[in-house]
Design brief:
Layout lengths: L2 H6 L3 H11 L3 E3 L2 H15 L4 E6 L11 H12 L3 E6 L21 H15 L8 E5 L1 H4 L4 H8 L4 H5 L2 H8 L6 H17 L3 E5 L3 H13 L6 E5 L25 H9 L6 H8 L4 H12 L4 H17 L1 H15 L10 E4 L4 H4 L3 H7 L6 H9 L3 E3 L2 E2 L7 H10 L6 E4 L3 E7 L4
Parallel strand pairs: 2-3, 2-5, 3-4, 5-6, 7-11
Antiparallel strand pairs: 1-6, 8-9, 8-10, 10-11
Helix pairs in contact: 2-3, 10-11, 12-15, 12-16, 13-15, 15-16, 18-19
Length: 429
């Protein structure tokens, strides 16, 4: 039976719901038709779907990339389904081997519990925790005796496990694979058995693990879950996946100002993807934004909408309005004082061109000394032509090149709202 034929049997309202829930996701097996059928059966039985997300609390601070899956879960909540968050109180001590070329260090129970509390505090910014079933897989994995573990292990072959990308890559490099790591996908699969999952979510890097849940469920006589994989979100650099390690992240704990500013730095080609994956806007609203861009709307204006939306989601609409006003003041021509003090430098001499920013601030007497200059820069208090500078050692030549690239005929330094300085060329003044 084709997907088209299957979709013809779905009620129009259910089909629209399925399309919205499927937006941005890869659904295995069966795609949109499989999801729509599950939704329709759930409605007929008046039995909400159980939608699972397992999280190992191996970190404490969440960023926007982590919320891609959480926002999709929130949609399921709004349609009346039961979201189940499984804290990996047991599996976190093993550590997911996905994407790793070495065995993870073992966490203590205390570390897992501490991380889990911080994690839950932050996911509450996206999910309705009152409607969320919170569980811990230590509750059912710890009690398993050796007979039950052997039974569980017999649900999969070693050949299947070694097909996992992370294990295959290590074998190719002749790197060790610890025996307990092979158990991780099976234990995650058993989580689906324990909570009787209808749908499991994960990132695209979790494909093997979440599909393993289907195998384990069938082994234990349950109907296998549908798998929904969400894409990984690139960071503000537009290249690598969002990560604190790469410094390209927008953190849920970021101040409204930092969240707004970082949102404005994403590349233009990622605007629609961020609206789709990182905001609560509907598919129709995102499509309208995509149309505006296609019709020539200035991407900067669209990014202002994105930055407002991001701040509003985590800090409220009033904070978003305030940050928009602050951004406009800092970046609009009319906000600059009419009597900005000047500092002359030779834009053609190497000795001046190789002057670092912190020294310019000191020599121009905009600040009192080197320590203050470096501190202000690292604390994100210094702007050049309205753009944040965080490197105290950036040279004048690099700032001039940046101004030229942006079509600017001026070089304005700003510290906070009151200290301004115009760098001018000795040769022309």
């Amino acid at each position: 039976m084709s997907d088209t034929t299957s979709l013809e049997k779905i009620e129009p309202a259910i089909l629209e719901q399925a399309k919205e829930l499927a937006r941005g996701a890869e659904i295995l097996p069966g795609g949109l038709a499989a999801l729509a059928e599950r939704l329709q059966v759930a409605k007929k039985k008046n039995k909400p779907l159980r939608v699972k997300l397992g999280v190992d609390p191996t970190f404490t601070d969440l960023h926007i990339g982590h919320t891609v899956v959480l926002r999709k879960l929130r949609q399921f909540q709004e349609y009346g389904h039961q979201v189940v968050i499984i804290i990996g109180g047991f599996t976190a001590r093993i550590g997911d081997p996905s994407g790793r070329d070495a065995t993870r260090p073992t966490l203590t129970d205390e570390e897992v519990q501490s991380n889990a509390k911080t994690y839950l505090d932050q996911i509450g910014l996206v999910l309705d925790l009152k409607k969320t079933e919170l569980t811990n897989n230590a509750d059912w994995l710890k009690p398993l005796d050796l007979n039950e573990i052997i039974k569980l292990a017999s649900s999969v072959t070693v050949n299947q496990l070694l097909a996992k990308e992370a294990f295959g890559a290590r074998l190719d490099k002749q790197l060790p694979i610890a025996l307990h790591e092979l158990l991780y996908p099976i234990l995650q699969g058993y989580d689906s058995v324990a909570i009787k999952a209808d749908i499991e979510f994960g990132g695209t890097d979790q494909r093997f693990n979440v599909l393993q849940g289907r195998e384990v469920q069938m082994f234990y006589g349950q109907e296998p879950q549908i798998v929904m994989l969400m894409p990984l979100l690139e960071g503000t650099d537009g290249e690598k996946k969002m990560s604190k390690t790469y410094g390209n992240y927008i953190g849920l704990k970021d101040t409204p100002a930092d969240m707004f500013g970082k949102s404005m730095r994403i590349p233009d080609n990622l605007i629609v993807k961020y609206f789709n994956l990182a905001t609560s806007l509907s598919g129709k609203e995102v499509a309208a934004i995509e149309t505006e861009l296609a019709q020539g709307k200035n991407p900067k204006d669209i990014k202002l909408k994105l930055a407002q939306q991001m701040v509003s989601q985590y800090h409220g609409p009033l904070a978003a309005e305030l940050e928009l006003e602050n951004w406009d003041k800092l970046h609009s021509q009319r906000s600059k004082p009419s009597d900005i003090p000047t500092h002359k430098m030779d834009f053609n001499k190497e000795i001046d061109l190789d002057t670092p920013l912190f020294r310019i601030l000191v020599e121009s007497e905009l600040v009192k000394g080197t320590s203050e200059a470096k501190r202000l820069i690292t604390e994100k208090a210094v702007l050049f032509n309205g753009r944040l500078i965080q490197n105290p050692n950036v040279f004048l030549r690099h700032m001039l090149a940046d101004a030229k690239e942006n079509g600017e005929n001026e070089c304005i330094l700003q510290i906070g709202r009151r200290k301004w300085l115009s760098l001018i060329d000795k040769a022309t003044h």
